[in-house]
Amino acid sequence: MVSEQCDVVVVGAGLSGMCAARKLTRRGRQVVVLEAQDRTGGRVCHEEVEIDGHHHSFDLGAAYLGTNQTALIQLCTELGLCMDFDDPSADVIPVRAEGEAVYYLNGKRVLEDPEATLPWAAFNPISLFGIWRMQLRLDRFIQVMKNHIHDPWNAPNAERWDDWSVEDFLKSDVFFTRIDEDMLRIGVRAVWSVEPSEISFLYFLWYAASAGGIDTLLDNQGKDAAQGFYFRHGAHDVCDRLTRELGPAVRLGHPVRRIEQDLEGVTITTRTNDRLRARHAIVAVSPSVSSRIEYDPPLRPDRTHLVQRNPLGRTVKCYAVYDEPFWHERYSGLSIGNTTPLIWTMDYTVPPGPPAIMAFVVADHADALSGRPAHDIERTVCTALAETFQDERFRSPRRFIYKDWSADPWAWGGPTGVSPPGALTAFGRALRRPFGRIHWAGAEAATVWMGYLDGAVNAGHAAADGILTAGP
Ligand SMILES: Cc1cc2nc3c(=O)[nH]c(=O)nc-3n(C[C@H](O)[C@H](O)[C@H](O)COP(=O)(O)OP(=O)(O)OC[C@H]3O[C@@H](n4cnc5c(N)ncnc54)[C@H](O)[C@@H]3O)c2cc1C
Ligand SMILES: [Mg+2]
């Protein structure tokens, strides 16, 4: 029996679903958001930790943003956050830039002075030339993709680029040094948490174009960088504000099991057998997670195959908390490399909170850690920190906090869904195309900053627009 009727049911109270719901509510639509878990936010997720009687929050999912993520910034401003990137008391904090950065490549440590005028200045001229040449080459391709943000499958060379993985691209060219190849491999692992052989070269270029370029994607410092800033009160602050605004429209603990549709509307059934009737549905989860729902009538073949070819990356995100910020004596806390299980670290000290460093273990290294006991993960990560920064004090954190996203039953991994070779040209059209009365949101359905918080906002708004213009 149908217990309730509304205009739109949104599946998933992540950032994307809540943005869709907010936009529709503001346009007078009656919306119900069904969320499987007992919290909102999805891949925005935090842990509150008590240290010396004070509560500190650590973002275990998304944390970072940059100044050209305009939809996210606009949303945050509307929700009452101060997004003035030049104001030291604002709700966004720049990533620590003082101190040396460490590149730990193929067993060799290279230190970069933050005052250096050129990026990568710490490398020898031949390596530098290789990196520069690689960036130039990729930039040329990415410029091409910028004309095909909405239809990457129509780009010149699309079929050929989609046949290749990023690893195939690396093998297709003779490079000057190993450093440029390895830097690209590290970049892929850091952004998508997959190995370079797992990701389509076309998808790589499209994603970079959707973020405005390869440098904004990879940079950890500087204003435009995707990882230039983080939220003073955590990214979950944004989702908490949205949750409060939506109020009783958000129903926690309601995993959607089935969506039926007919000419007049949709009927949604939850795992607890609640049934809702609506004019439209928005499914605001990643493509592969959307495949856990039954659809009647069944999905079109292209969507059926797309959802089987959009796996999420594998990420273990960690924080080590210390009594003193001893690494500030010399280092910024930023490191990237391929020598230890750590792909990337950054300082995460939020005054007046305790000194902390964030570390990512991803892709093959994450597989090796997944399912291991917590003390094993802590030892592996802290040993790697000590080795990267050549400082034994990293071995004994006062607290260690982590989340293995592959073990999250409602995310199935992170940070985002990734196209393997062949998938985008064959089935990419199904990423966003509505299926009757079902519209698709979620960060993977975005065309600007896809995969990011900003993309989640964009895709949520686009799905809402699709319904607002669809008529009854
Ligand atoms: C470790 C990590 C680090 C990241 N770092 C960054 C970063 O620094 N900056 C950045 O911009 N982005 C980052 N991202 C990516 C960012 O988190 C995501 O792009 C964004 O949060 C996705 O939002 P969404 O609403 O599309 O999906 P989700 O957040 O996945 O939301 C989907 C929601 O749907 C729910 N759900 C799933 N199935 C059902 C069902 N059947 N019924 C009901 N509910 C269901 C889920 O529980 C979830 O709440 C990171 C992600 C991870 C995992
Ligand atoms: Mg969502």
Describe it for me?
- InterPro entries: Amino_oxidase, FAD/NAD-bd_sf, Flavin_amine_oxidase, Flavin_MAO.
- Keywords: Oxidoreductase.
- This protein is an alpha/beta fold and 472 residues long.
- Among the domains are: 4-43 and 236-311 and 418-470, FAD/NAD(P)-binding domain (3-Layer(bba) Sandwich); 119-218, Guanine Nucleotide Dissociation Inhibitor, domain 1 (Orthogonal Bundle), CATH 1.10.405.10.
- Helix content is 32%, strand content 22%.
- Helix 1 (15-26) runs parallel beside helix 9 (236-246) and helix 1 packs parallel to helix 15.
- It is globular.
- The model has no long low-confidence stretch (mean pLDDT 94).
- The site of magnesium ion (MG) has 8 residues, from helix 1.
Short description:
With 472 residues, this protein is an alpha/beta fold. It is built from 15 helices and 20 strands. The two termini are 23 Å apart.
Helix content: 25-40%
CATH topology of the domain at 4-43 and 236-311 and 418-470: FAD/NAD(P)-binding domain
Q: What's the oligomerization state? A: single chain
Distance between the termini: 23 Å
* Unreliable parts: none
Strand share of the residues? 15-25%
Binding site for substrate: 360
Keywords: Oxidoreductase
Protein name: Amine oxidase domain-containing protein
Organism: Chondromyces crocatus
